[in-house]
Design goal:
The chain is of the alpha/beta class and about 220 residues long. It has one domain: Rossmann fold (3-Layer(aba) Sandwich). The protein has 6 helices and 12 strands. Strands 1, 4, 5, 6, 7, 8, 9 and 10 form an 8-stranded mixed beta sheet that branches. It has a two-stranded antiparallel sheet with strand order 2-3. Strands 11-12 form a two-stranded antiparallel sheet.
Amino acid sequence: MVNNISEHASILNVFLSEIRSVEIQKDPLRFRRNMERIAEILGYEVSKRLTFQSETFQTPLGKASILVPKEKPLLATILRAGLSMHQGLLNYFDRSESAFISAYRKHSTAEDFEIFVEYMAAPDLDNKIWIISDPMLATGSSMVTVYKAMLRYGNPKRIFIVSAIATPQAIDYVKKHFPENTEIFIAAIDDELTAQSYIVPGLGDAGDLAYGEKI
């Protein structure tokens, strides 16, 4: 199931407009904060899909029964671009464990590249709910490669994918390689993908905008 949150007017669209704006992008602090805000909103939407149970809490004046999640999802992010979104998810799922995976494009030509996973730091992933975040789903190759790498640490109970911007091509590719009950939560879907696998209109390189241009 694909959930395109910007299809419905909300404050999310303000943050989305600012990460796209070439003028506002010049402020990396604001760019990171907007990515964090977008992830918070998407994380809130993901939370509606979790299983809840009633628990009773003592207040100064009595007892209150409140529905709370039965289990904590595990938060996984693709370095380095995903760090801001990871923080947004961690703001809401603040007791969750985290996994960090380094994935990069190795180009043979401008149009031809492979995705390599160099590094992973993760707890036991077996039989847990995974929330995997990456700001941009251009082709979906990085997300699929990271998913396969994570399987070495265990099998998920369920998977949620969280991204700021995606393409239809990436969504189709993810659907082919992820379990059927995977849900995708996206702030926006852009139709165009260039020969170099950049999203148009997109926003540029999320990692560079957040943390500076890499050499």
